[in-house]
Amino acid sequence: MKKILLASVALIALTGAASAADLAARHYTKAPVAVASVYNWTGFYLGVVGGGAWEDANSPRMQGGFVGGTAGYNWQTGNVVFGVEADGAWADVNASAAGVVIVPGLGAIPTSVSSKTDAMGTVRGRIGWAVNNVLLYGTGGYAWIDNKITATLGAASISDSKFHSGWTVGAGVEAFFAPQWSVKGEYLYRSLGGETYFGAVPTGTVNFHTVQVGVNYHFNGPVVAKY
Asked: What angle do CA 71, 170, 136 make, to 5 degrees?
């Protein structure tokens, strides 16, 4: 009986030791490495843009809104981003003045003159500083507007449209809010050269302040890197 009892104790001890050895030999896998998005601004993009414009002049001054599209391309080296961008927009930026003209034999005839910009756009260079998904930038280049002046005298009315060219300068901030989507806010000062309407009425320089927001789709998203 003693021999049987000793054999049982030895068997239990050996079984426990084997189990402990198995536990010590187990291997555990490491937790997966976190993946973070590192944004690279290089590439082509398309977007929509809209905002408000007001003339840098005394009353009556032209003011109103616009909406249109944007296309551009960026190159990034380090934190510096270079780019070129073009935009065009339908606009309703206008002003008018009214009064009366005394015509002998007819008396006071109502008269008015209105000026309306119905399209505007720019072609600009951009240079900025990127901090991952946020870009601060300055911009400048060519600007244009399509403007129409209408004069009325009683029931008679005449109009003339002219294309004004000039320059623009400004600044903005743009940020990715999704892997291929960004939103931007931008201020531009636009200075357009004068034109002669109706063959005899010259205008001075037309200057606009514009504030606009836009959403862009980037055809190459951020570079994904593992840390």
From this structure: 75
- Distance separating alpha carbons of residues 217 and 136, to the nearest angstrom: 18
φ/ψ region of 200 (left if φ > 0, alpha if ψ in -120 to 50, else beta) reads alpha
Which residues on neighbouring strands pair with residue 165, listed in sequence order?
Answer: 144
The three-state secondary structure class of 200 is coil
Q: What would the pLDDT profile of 138-195 be if each residue is shown by its tens digit?
A: 999 999 999 999 999 888 899 999 999 999 999 999 999 998 999 999 999 999 999 9
Residue 203 identity: T
20/8 Cα distance (integer angstroms): 19
Rounded distance between C-alpha atoms, residue 90 and residue 68, angstroms:
6
